[in-house]
Amino acid sequence: MFDTALKPVHPIDLRTYLVADLATIGDGDVVRIVDEAVAGGATTVQIRGKLLSDAELLRVVTAVADRVDGRATLLVNDRVDVYLAAREAGAAVHGLHIGQSDGGPLEVRERIGAHAVLGLSAAKPEELAAAAALRPGVLDYLGVGAVRATPTKPDAPTPLGWEGLARAVAQAGPLPCVAIGGVGFGDAAEARAAGASGLAVVRAICSADDPRAAARELRDEWDRERIPNVLSIAGSDPSGGAGIQADLKSIQATGGYGMAAVTALTAQNTRGVSGVHTPPAEFLTSQLDAISNDVRIDAVKIGMLANAEVIQAVTEWIAALSPKPAVVLDPVMIATSGDRLLDADASRALDGLIALADVVTPNLPELAALLGADTASSWDEALGQARELASRHGVLVLAKGGHLDGDTAPDALVSAGGVVASFESPRIATTNTHGTGCSLSSALATIYARTGRGADAWTWSARLAHEWIHGAILAADALEVGSGSGPLDHAYATRAGLAAPRRDAELDAWWGDVLPIVEGIYGDDFVASLGDGTLDLARFETYIAQDSVYLFAYSDLLARAAELSADPAEKAFWRASSEAAVATEMELHRSRGAGERVPASPETEAYVAHLERAGGEHAVLIAALLPCFWIYEQVGLTLASKNHAGHPYGDWLSTYGSPEFTESTRQAIELVQRAAHRADRATLTRMREAFTLSSRHERAFFAQA
C-alpha cells in the first residue's frame, strides 16, 4: 500500500550536512572522506557529481552507501534516475536534493515516493513562498543560500548574509532550513540565531587533511549550547541557603555560569542572622570592574545592598556597562522580624537603581516599603501596588504572593498597563523556604539570559522560574540542613535527570506555535460542515476510508512507541492506545460503511511516512504521534458541542468528544512533556519539528475530503 523506498529510521538530521562535491574532492577518495566525516559526526551526506555521467555517479553513490551503511542520511544531488537506480540496487540511499531547475517538487515526489527524503535549494522570496505553500510531505527541508559567496557555486544568487538568512528562514515557514554557501567553522552560533537547522559545508570537510576531525569540530560547534554568564551582586550566607550561595546554585541549576561580587558578609544559619559586615563600597566597585573588564556579562541579579554608598556604587557601575545586560533586582529591605534594613538615604538611592532594572522582584513587605504604603493584605491589593511601582519606574514587577494565606501561592508579572501574566502553584506546607527570594530572582535572570528573545521572553522566563522554584521548595524537606528554616533543594531537577528550564520544552508553547494550524482546521470547509451536519455523505465516506487506512498504520506506530518505552506504565499506555485504534475506532468506521481498505491518498501516505520516519527514536516518535490525540481531542470537543438528536454524524462526533478520549489525550501530553523535559537540545529540536509537521499533516488530512 505504501511505497517500498528505503525508510530512514530517524528524522533527517541537518545539523552537520556534508555536500560531498566530487569536483572539489578531485582525485581524492570520496568513499574514505565520507566514511571519516560520518564517523566524526556528519549527520547528512549529499553526493554531488555535476560532471559525472549517470553510470559514474551511480557507482560512487552505491560505494558510499555500502560504506556508510545507514549511519547518516544519504542523498543524491539532482539525479532522480540515479537515486532510483541506487534504490533498486538495494543501496542504503535515502533521497534527493534538487535545485530550482531539476523538476518541480511535486513531480519529483511522485516519482520517488512518500518515504524518500526530498530537499530543495531556495533563496529568492518567491522560491521560499512557493516551497512553504506546498502540502506537508512534499519537501522535507530547504537548502538556503548562498550565505556568502563560494567558489563551489559560482552561479549562486547574491549572498544573503546572516540577516538575509534569517528572513529566508522566516519565509520558509515550517520547513527546516540548512544554511549553505561559504559557511563553515565558527558559523554555528550565527546560523542558529538565524533559525537554521544546520550548516551545509563542502570545502570545510572535503578539503580537510582530517575529515573526521573537521566533521567532529563542526558537529561539536553546532551542539555547543551558549552558557550565559550571570553575575550575582549580593551578600554572603555561610549556611548556603540564601545570598550569593543560593544565587550561584540557582544559576547553575537553571543553565548558567555563576559569578559573584560580595556586598556584605553575614554570620547566619537557619535560625537567624547574628552579624553583618559591609566592606567599603570602593572594594565592591573593584570586584565589579575586575569582572566586567574580563568577562562577558549576560545578566545581573542584584540582592542585598547594605547602604546608600553601596547602592550608588552598583548604580554607577550598571549605568556604565555597554552593552547593558539583563538586570533583575531583588530589593532586600525588610528583615524576617519585620525591621527595615535600609535607612531613608538608602531607600532614596534605591530608586535610581530600580530605574536601571528590567524586572524587580520584591516580596509584599518590600513592595509596600518601595511605595511608602502598608503591606498588601490581599492579592488584588498586591497587584495594584505592583502596577503602581511598575508605572513609577518603567519596569516590570514580579509580584509574589507567598506571604499571603491560602491554598495556592500566586506570582504575577506586572507592567504599568497591568498584569502581563499570572502563575499559580499549590502552597507547600514546609518551613524550609530560606532563600526563596534570592533563588527565584537568580533563576529568572538566568533563564532570561539563556532563552530571552521575543516579546514574551520575560513572561516565559518568569513562568519557568516560578515552576522551578516550586519544585525546589517541594524537594526541600529531603535535605537535612540546620534546625531552623532550612534551604531549598536547588539540585532537585538535576538529580531527577531533567534539563534546565526551557520554553522550547514546554508543550503549551508547542501548542501555541501550532495554534494557527488548529484554527485553520476549524475554518476549513470539511470540519465546519461536519459540525453543522451539512457535509456531503460522499465526502465523509472518502474521509473515513482514508482514516481507516491511516488507523492501521497508526496502530502499528503506537505499538512501536510501546516497544521503545523503558517505563512499564508508559509501555502499557501506548499498547492500550494501539489496541484501541484498531478495535474501538475501527468498529465505528465499519459501522459507517468503511469496508475493504482503499489505496492511500497522497495525504495519508505522506502522513504515515512522516510517522514512520520518526519511529526509530522514542521521544521523537511520541511527539509525532501526539497531534493525533491533541488536535483530534480539541476538534472533537468542539464538534461534540454541536451534536444534537438527529445529527447525521452524531455517532462520530460523540466518540472524539468522549471523556475517555480526553483522558487518553491528557496522558499522552503528560508522557511527551516528561520526555521533552529530559531531552537534550538536538533531540528536543527533532521532537518539536516532528510535532509541528504532524500538526500540518492533521490539517491536510482533514482537508483532503
In short:
The protein is an alpha/beta fold and 705 residues long. It is built from 29 helices and 17 strands. The strands form two sheets. Strands 11-10-9-12-13-14-15-16-17 form a nine-stranded mixed sheet, sandwiched between helices. Strands 1-2-3-4-5-6-7-8 form an eight-stranded parallel barrel, surrounded by seven helices.
Provide the fold topology.
Elements: E1 16-21, H1 22-25, H2 30-40, E2 44-48, H3 54-68, E3 73-77, H4 80-88, E4 95-98, H5 105-112, E5 117-122, H6 125-133, E6 141-144, H7 161-171, E7 177-180, H8 188-193, E8 198-201, H9 203-206, H10 211-223, E9 229-236, H11 243-253, E10 257-269, E11 272-277, H12 281-292, E12 299-302, H13 308-320, E13 326-329, H14 344-354, E14 359-360, H15 364-371, H16 379-393, E15 396-400, E16 408-415, E17 418-426, H17 436-451, H18 457-474, H19 492-495, H20 507-523, H21 525-532, H22 537-564, H23 568-582, H24 584-591, H25 602-613, H26 618-640, H27 650-656, H28 659-678, H29 681-703
Helix pairs in contact: 2-3, 2-10, 3-4, 11-17, 12-13, 13-14, 15-16, 17-18, 20-29, 21-26, 22-23, 22-25, 22-26, 23-24, 23-28, 25-29, 26-27, 26-28, 26-29
